[in-house]
Amino acid sequence: MEIFKDLIGNEDIKKTLGSAILKGEFSHAYIIEGPYGSGKHTIARLASAAIMCQNTDTLPCKKCNLCQKILNDNCTDVRFYNAFKIDEVRKIKEAIYESATECDYQVFVLNDAHKMNPQAQNALLLSLEEPPKNVIFFLLCQDANMLLETIRSRAQILRTKPLTKEQIISYIKRNTDYSAPDSTLEEIVISSYGSLGYALDMLNPEKSQALLDSRASTEKFVISMLNLDTGVGNLLSSMFSWQRERVKELLSSSLVVLRDLAVIKKSKNAPLCFYTSQEQAKEIASKYSLKKILDLIDAINEGLYNLGFNASIAGTLTSILASCN
Fold first, then answer.
1. Where exactly does CATH 3.40.50.300 map onto the chain?
2. Could you tell me the CATH superfamily of domain 2-159?
3. Of 60, 56, 54, nearest to 6 (Cα)?
4. CATH 1.20.272, domain 204-324, yes or no
5. How far apart are alpha carbons 77 and 140 in whole angstroms?
6. Is residue 37 predicted with pLDDT exceeding 90?
7. Is 5's pLDDT higher than 90?
8. pTM assigned to the model
């Protein structure tokens, strides 16, 4: 029997959770951790539908009444909560003792569970320790370590993994009407760092153009700093009035560019995180020594550290420039 047929990647989760559902031995509580857009909500919905589905060929079948309701968020027995505060957790604790109306189980999905304060987590603890029969919890979070150990010890932890560039591009071409050039799509996808959700969000023309502009600005900054060309002083001066977070974002993105240039000098087939073309990365990297690239990486890292302690933007950028001379 096939299970989670439409889930992209995450083969470990397919195997672990799928096998448990097929055997009827699934846990009463799961923690699904991973970055934004990594498929946590999709996994929770598919698992909920698979548990309720009566099809004998594939789970979930996506055709029966319960599958369609659950996958379209229309099932009264599969509920999503933002349980960040103790009052919200108390509502969940009351709801778990209600009888299921459509399904054999009640499923409670807690979004961004890592944002729950300690009081809310402790209030949830008893429900995880002694849940009523036929109640299942899915706690979705970016990092399970942000949850209390007592919470983690009472749930099985499943970790999502980044998707490959090829998997994301294939999904977008099969499931959307996105019509921009392949080069634009590749820039969006490589910027997603394996997050399908982020890539899909960036397909919006305004967002994709903002992303492309940001990438171009980042590369311009890096090349200007490496070249120490005549316009670099004016470029930095224009940044003195930026908001601190914007400067930190540019510097952090610059480290990704420099990382690519450094690794491509050591290995011509190194996987890249910023550039979509190895040939382009090789051509740019060939113009600079590895020492120059690494020195700029060190200077930017120090600048980011200082900005974290409220160092002035002008002073930080000037210091980075001075270290390049």
1. 2-159
2. P-loop containing nucleotide triphosphate hydrolases (3.40.50.300)
3. 60
4. yes
5. 18
6. no
7. no
8. 0.81
